[in-house]
Design a protein that fits this description.
Layout: H1 2-34, E1 36-40, E2 46-51
Antiparallel strand pairs: 1-2
């Protein structure tokens, strides 16, 4: 009986981790689709880039 309970707990952990990975991948995809906005100094050198909000 203990082994079955441990197995169920492990399966729930694996499922929740895979869902988190899918959510993170979706978030990264949306960030890439938005594009980047970069700031430049007076010499034309890049100062920093951020995702467009």
């Amino acid at each position: 009986m203990k082994k079955i309970i441990i197995l169920i707990i492990l399966l729930v952990n694996v499922i929740s981790c895979s869902e988190l990975a899918e959510l993170e991948a979706g978030h990264q995809q949306r960030m890439r689709e938005r594009g980047m906005e970069c700031m430049y100094n007076y010499k034309g050198e890049v100062q920093g880039c951020n995702y467009i909000r």
